[in-house]
Structures are given as structure tokens and as C-alpha cells.
């Protein structure tokens, strides 16, 4: 009878997965992780073809598979919870935002597929993702602009989220223009300067600025230590103005403006590195693998800034810079949050919204460490291959990345099974 009761509870918990509105949409996180795994497979395919050393359509497809499919979809999913919690404002039109998130993921998937297939439908797919994103953004802005009795700190957080999402809207608009150009729309010679501006504004003004802001809360949960408030102010300000200066300098072919922006971004990155390293080294939470991912992430941030400086100085290292920014700095930070927040989502799905099971009670740390090692070595090999124009390390690094993804997904699957077993 006891076994029958456990089986019945397991069935009911599976039904609840589809019938309950969860604090973070699990579908968005699942799509994000599927894109993560596919990104390593795509890197292997690109490396084997020898296409990794120029900005070909497959390389552009890989960039957007990671930046939109893996990162932005995960970010928009988490923000459905983070904005109300951090800014103390209930989400307005939440149903529309959740539906838009699904359409956004569909548009991103079609857009990436079109890029890999050299299809003229890239513009239409990008337009679908863009329209869905606008719906999501308008609901987010309506939420953030609500009057209320929030504290001064919460009002500052709301303003920061508003500006970051505004930058995302600008990045998306530039991206839509470029996607229409891929589909054959006449853009003119001026459009040749847009990719660098679009890419750097996305890397710093959207993705990095979002990580800097959200991590002031999430890193504390992962480590038990609180990041410095004044560090956050310095990093956020330097990154915002640096991203605008770098992007506008690249678009206007103004070397002085671009270098001024790069210096500000470097200052912000170094300050963030030092404060985050302090937090990780003083961590009191016993779950170490996510902390190791955070530490690796900020090391990759410094590497990316150095490689990006070389690219700005004229060395042919732009692709290595972009890869380290995406797979190293932002990717490893996302992995840290997946192992912590993702596992918490799993626990609440199967054990109820009030469950407080710590992630380390559900995860197999041997698999977490295996994923950590494979990912760091994989990023290093691919970055080296791109720097030295050698396909061998790119292929080897991609295989290691696939192995790391399998290990991480296996750890998360084990966490799900343990959560169901105690449901």
C-alpha cells in the first residue's frame, strides 16, 4: 500500500507540472538548456567543416543559438520571478508575458534554423521573435512603471531593469534590421558597421549588465555572502556608458569613442571580478560546484576583455573574443545559476511551492564537477583554436562541451528523480 501511495503521488506531481503556473516557467528553462546542448553540437559541426574562422551564416547562427536561445530565453523566464521579487511590483498582464515567451522561443528556433540553412526566411522568423519580445517588454515596462510604496532601493532596481530591457529593445531592433538584410532587403553600405555595434551592445548592454544586476541577489543565495552595493553601482554605471560608447564608436568608425567605451567596460569588469572573487572565497554555503562556476565565469570575463582589447587594436581575434564572452563569461555564470536556481525550480515543481530543499540534497556532485571540468577545458580549447586558426582544438573542445552538457543534464535529471521520490 505504501508503494502504491508513492506511485499515486508521483503521478499527481507529474500532472501538476502541466496544470500549475510555476514561479519560473520550466518550459523556458528547458528550451534554454536544449539550445545549450545544441550549441556544442553546432560548434562541432562548424569546426569539422572548417567554417569557424569567419563570420559565416552558420557562425552567426551559433551566436544567436547561444545569445537568444540559451541566454535570453532563460533570462526572460527568470525575470518573470525576479522583477516582482526585487522591485516589489506584481507583474501586470503576466499571462500575455508567458505566452509571448513561448512565441519568442519559437521565433528564435526558426531564426537559427534559417541561418544554418542559409534561408531567406530568416527575416520572417526574426520578425516573429521580435514581435513576441515587444509584447513581453511592454508587460515588463508596465510592471516596472507601476506606482507603489516600494523602498528607494527597490525603485532604483526597477529603474535599472527598465533601462536594461530598453537596451534589449534597441539590440533587438538592430538585429531585426540585419536579419532582413540576410533575407535580401537592400540596406546600403552603412549596414556593414552594424554587426559589431549590435553584437557588443548585446554582450555588454544587455547580457552582461543583466548578469551584473541580477547577481547582486542570486550570488548571495549561492554563496551566502553579500556583494558590495557600491561595487554594483560602479560596475553598472561603467558598463552601461561603456557599452553605449563602444557600440556607437564602432558604428561611427570613431576609434577614440570605441576605446573610451572599452576602457569603461574594462574598469567595470575588473571591479566586478574582484568583488565576486571576494564573495566566492568567503562562501559559507556548502554547495561548492555552482560557486566554482561563478569563479570560472569571472576569470573568463577578464580573458574576454583582454582578447577584445586585442581585437579592437587590430588583431584578428574578434571571433575568439565573442566566443569567450558567450561560452566562458556568460555561459559559466548561467551554468552556476542553473545548478542552483534550476534545481530549486525542480524541487518546487515536484514538492510544492513552499519546498526549501537545498540543491545539494538533490544533485550528484560528481556529475557537477565532471560538467565543470569538461566545460572549462572545452571553452579553453575552442578559444585557443579560434585564436590560432586551428580546427583541431575547436573539434576537441566541442566534444568536451557535449560531454559537460550531458553530465550537467544527468545531474539535473537525478535531482528530478530524487524530488519525485520524496513527493
Q: Please, could you describe this protein's structure?
A:
82% of the residues lie in helices and 0% in strands. It has helices at residues 2-19, 26-49, 57-87, 94-116, 122-144, 152-182, 194-223, 229-252, 255-281, 288-312, 318-351, 365-388, 391-421. The longest helix has 34 residues, at 318-351. It is built from 13 helices and no strands. The chain is globular, with a radius of gyration of 21 Å. Helix 3 (57-87) runs antiparallel to helix 4. It starts with a helix and ends with a helix.
Please write out the topology.
Layout: H1 2-19, H2 26-49, H3 57-87, H4 94-116, H5 122-144, H6 152-182, H7 194-223, H8 229-252, H9 255-281, H10 288-312, H11 318-351, H12 365-388, H13 391-421
Gross morphology is globular
Unreliable runs, pLDDT <50, ≥5 residues? 1-19
Average pLDDT over all residues: 91
Radius of gyration: 21 Å
Largest sheet: none
| Helix fraction by DSSP (H/I, runs of at least 4) | over 70%
Tally of strands: 0
| Topology order in helix (H) and strand (E) letters | HHHHHHHHHHHHH
Structural class: mainly alpha
Termini gap: 16 Å
Our count of helices gives: 13
Proportion of strand residues: under 5%
How would you sum up this structure in a few lines?
With 423 residues, the protein is an all-alpha fold. It has helices spanning 2-19, 26-49, 57-87, 94-116, 122-144, 152-182, 194-223, 229-252, 255-281, 288-312, 318-351, 365-388, 391-421. Helices cover 82% and strands 0% of the residues.
Amino acid at each position: 500500500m505504501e508503494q502504491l501511495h508513492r506511485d499515486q503521488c508521483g503521478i499527481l506531481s507529474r500532472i501538476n507540472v502541466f496544470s500549475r503556473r510555476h514561479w519560473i516557467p520550466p518550459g523556458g528553462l528547458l528550451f534554454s538548456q536544449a539550445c545549450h546542448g545544441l550549441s556544442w553540437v553546432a560548434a562541432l559541426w562548424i569546426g569539422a567543416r572548417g567554417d569557424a574562422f569567419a563570420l559565416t551564416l552558420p557562425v552567426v547562427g551559433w551566436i544567436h543559438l547561444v545569445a537568444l536561445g540559451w541566454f535570453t530565453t532563460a533570462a526572460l523566464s527568470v525575470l518573470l520571478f525576479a522583477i516582482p521579487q526585487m522591485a516589489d511590483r506584481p507583474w501586470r498582464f503576466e499571462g500575455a508575458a508567458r505566452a509571448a515567451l513561448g512565441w519568442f522561443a519559437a521565433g528564435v528556433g526558426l531564426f537559427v534554423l534559417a541561418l544554418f540553412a542559409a534561408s531567406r526566411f530568416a527575416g520572417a522568423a526574426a520578425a516573429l521573435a521580435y514581435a513576441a519580445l515587444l509584447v513581453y517588454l511592454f508587460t515588463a515596462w508596465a510592471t516596472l512603471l507601476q506606482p507603489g510604496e516600494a523602498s528607494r532601493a527597490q525603485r532604483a532596481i526597477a529603474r535599472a531593469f527598465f533601462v536594461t530591457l530598453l537596451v534589449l529593445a534597441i539590440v533587438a531592433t538592430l538585429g531585426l534590421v540585419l536579419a532582413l538584410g540576410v533575407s535580401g532587403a537592400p540596406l546600403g553600405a552603412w549596414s556593414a558597421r552594424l554587426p559589431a555595434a549590435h553584437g557588443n551592445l548585446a554582450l555588454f548592454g544587455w547580457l552582461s549588465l543583466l548578469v551584473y544586476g541580477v547577481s547582486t541577489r542570486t550570488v548571495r543565495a549561492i554563496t551566502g555572502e553579500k556583494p558590495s552595493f557600491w561595487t554594483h553601482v560602479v560596475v553598472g554605471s561603467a558598463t552601461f556608458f561603456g557599452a553605449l560608447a563602444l557600440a556607437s564608436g564602432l558604428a561611427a568608425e570613431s576609434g577614440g569613442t570605441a576605446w573610451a567605451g572599452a576602457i569603461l567596460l574594462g574598469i567595470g569588469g575588473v571591479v566586478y571580478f574582484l568583488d565576486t572573487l571576494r564573495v566566492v572565497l568567503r562562501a559559507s554555503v556548502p554547495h561548492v560546484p555552482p560557486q566554482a562556476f561563478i569563479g570560472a565565469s569571472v576569470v573568463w570575463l577578464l580573458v574576454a576583455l583582454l582578447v577584445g582589447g586585442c581585437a579592437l587594436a587590430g588583431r584578428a581575434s574578434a571571433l575568439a573574443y565573442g566566443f569567450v564572452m558567450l561560452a566562458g563569461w556568460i555561459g559559466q555564470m548561467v551554468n552556476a545559476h542553473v545548478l542552483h536556481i534550476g534545481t530549486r525550480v525542480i524541487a518546487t515543481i515536484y514538492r510544492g511551492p513552499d519546498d526549501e530543499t537545498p540543491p545539494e540534497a538533490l544533485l550528484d556532485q560528481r556529475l557537477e564537477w565532471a560538467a565543470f571540468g569538461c566545460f572549462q577545458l572545452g571553452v579553453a580549447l575552442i578559444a585557443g583554436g579560434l585564436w590560432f586558426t586551428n580546427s583541431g582544438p575547436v573539434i576537441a573542445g566541442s566534444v568536451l562541451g557535449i560531454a559537460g552538457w550531458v553530465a550537467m543534464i544527468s545531474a539535473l535529471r537525478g535531482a528530478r528523480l530524487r524530488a519525485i521520490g520524496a513527493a
